[in-house]
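Bench log. Compound arrived from synthesis this morning; before running ITC I wanted a structural hypothesis for how fe (ii) ion sits in the protein. Inputs:
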Amino acid sequence: MEQRILSGIGCLEAALKELGTRKYLLVRDSSYPYLSIRNYIDALPAPHVVFDGFSSNPLYEDVCKGVALFNREGCDTIVAVGGGSAIDVGKCIKLFSKMEPEQNFLFQGYKDTGVPLIAVPTTAGTGSESTRYAVIYYQGKKQSITHDSIRPPIAILDSSVLKTLPLYQKKCTMLDALCQGIESWWSVNSTQESKGYSRLAVETILENMDAYIRDNDEKAAEKILLAANFAGRAINITQTTAPHAMSYKLTSLYGLPHGHAVAMCLPEVWEYMLGHLERCVDRRGPAYLKAVLDEIAERITYERFQKLLDQLEMRRPAAKGREQEIEILVDAVNPVRLNNNPVALPSDGIRSMYERIVLK
Ligand SMILES: [Fe+2]
């Protein structure tokens, strides 16, 4: 399904009218009270019900409450305003909304419910507004949900939301977008189309990051929001690769925000791949992969990426029981997710990367 990207929150009222919305569920996170777009949304005439009962790592049980509220209140549309988690919760409510409420939603088989979903991202990073993926936690484990129908048919980009985003969060989310752009570029699933998005995302971030982070420049914020969206469209086609796969346990073990954790892994994976091109698993061959890595290096090298992390003061996690923690990290990497990576990574390679990432 084609997705429409609208510019400016002022488009929301017309979008709701066009959809014939009678009542919508407003899924929003804790950033909402600080957003200037709140004034516009709160003044909209369409009736709505608020759902904000979820954390930044949303639980399956949270989503179930949202589904119950959606149905109890007779809502017909979902508007998700927030970071990746709020949008992911909106996606899951859409997917689960017509399922049998007495049975576990995760095991019922996914179908398109046809419920309209509008996403309004408030961080420039995850690109969740343009992907068919959602992440929630079930019984303490990360649960990835993938279905074409949960890609929001309408996304509204409004850069004013970035004015109140705290600096550290700006850095983390921007790095997530940059990593997603780079990983998608080298992914074994890349296509001409996805590489076009990756290129745009990476170049736009590199051109605008200083003005965005240092000067809080409005035009730069607009560009970064768009770049994060391009990176989202790229990974919607390719999925992410090893740096993302290696990052999840860093997040749960050390509490590192997602973008921070991924950015720690990316230059290590990159350097490892350059030294092990003979382990290329991309069907297009090692010469193709080398050309892709050269193409990326024309924009940014892994050394430059590492310097960028130092400039942004993104610190490495410090271990308490290092040896034991390294083993936990190595064991937690999902091998299926590594299949998108263009170079095969054996566990001793992964171990040596974590040894460089985690401080003594
Ligand atoms: Fe990510």
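What the model suggests: The CA atoms of residues 317 and 358 lie 5 Å apart. The beta strands are 4-7, 24-28, 48-51, 77-82, 117-121, 133-138, 141-146, 154-157.
ITC booked for Thursday regardless.
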